């Protein structure tokens, strides 16, 4: 591992594409340390965020956010996403008055395409984004990250039925 920190050099997801696999592993460790340090002070969702670090790195490494739309069903798993999308300076004020929200928020970042908490709505939102993309003859990916109980809500099953019926091109990541 390099003695120099990588996380402070990440201004946006495009910076990940310049890193080697070894550097991505170091970045994952730095992100975990930052999440632990912050959540131990501010409160928040710790385990769920520690569990999606590599998944979030992979999503931002492979896809091109904000052009590609990533919808988090379990919004409280988005801390790594926030760190990778230009909110490192504000991260120390996570879940604090006038600080960052603990969930995706369109008003915070162009990388947050849908305000979510934990309501089993990502599949419906992703389907709507995919339909709009195709009707507007656009060409980008739509990714729904679903997990941590998101498939317990009836809205998710309705969306899966509609996705199967319409056969829109979208990616579902079941975590």
Model description:
The structure is a single chain. The protein is mainly alpha-helical and 175 residues long. It has one domain: Thiamin diphosphate (ThDP)-binding fold, Pyr/PP domains (Rossmann fold, 3-Layer(aba) Sandwich), CATH 3.40.50. The protein is built from 6 helices and 3 strands, in the order H-H-H-E-H-H-E-H-E. It has helices at 21-42, 47-50, 53-62, 79-84, 122-135, 154-166, and strands at residues 69-72, 142-146, 171-174. Strand 2, helix 6 (154-166) and strand 3 form a beta-alpha-beta unit. The protein is globular and about 50 Å long. It starts with 20 loop residues before the first helix and ends with a strand.
Order of helices and strands: HHHEHHEHE
Spell out the CATH superfamily. Answer: Thiamin diphosphate (ThDP)-binding fold, Pyr/PP domains
Approximate shape: globular
Uncertain regions spanning at least 5 consecutive residues: none
Question: What is the typical, i.e. mean, pLDDT?
Answer: 93
Tally of alpha and pi helices: 6
Order of adjacent strands in the largest pleated sheet: 1-2-3
Our estimate of the beta-strand percent is 5-15%
Biggest sheet, in brief?
3 strands, parallel
Please name the CATH topology: Rossmann fold
The domain tally reads 1
Can you give me a brief rundown of this structure?
The protein is mainly alpha-helical. It has helices at 21-42, 47-50, 53-62, 79-84, 122-135, 154-166; strands at 69-72, 142-146, 171-174.
């Amino acid at each position: 591992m390099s003695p120099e920190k990588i996380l402070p050099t990440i201004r946006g997801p495009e910076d990940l594409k310049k890193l080697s696999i070894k550097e991505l592993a170091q970045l994952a460790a730095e992100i975990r340390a930052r999440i632990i340090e912050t959540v131990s002070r501010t409160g928040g969702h710790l385990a769920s965020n520690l569990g999606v670090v590599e998944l979030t790195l992979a999503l931002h490494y492979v896809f091109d956010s904000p052009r590609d739309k990533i919808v988090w069903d379990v919004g409280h798993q988005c801390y790594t996403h926030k760190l990778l999308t230009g909110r490192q300076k504000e991260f120390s004020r996570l879940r604090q008055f006038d600080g960052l929200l603990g969930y995706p928020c369109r008003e915070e970042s162009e990388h947050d395409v849908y305000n979510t908490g934990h309501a089993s709505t990502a599949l419906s939102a992703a389907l709507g984004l995919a339909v709009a993309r195709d009707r507007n003859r656009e060409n980008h990916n739509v990714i729904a990250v679903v997990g941590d109980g998101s498939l317990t809500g009836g809205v998710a099953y309705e969306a899966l039925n509609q996705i199967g019926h319409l056969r829109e091109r979208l990616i579902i990541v079941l975590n």
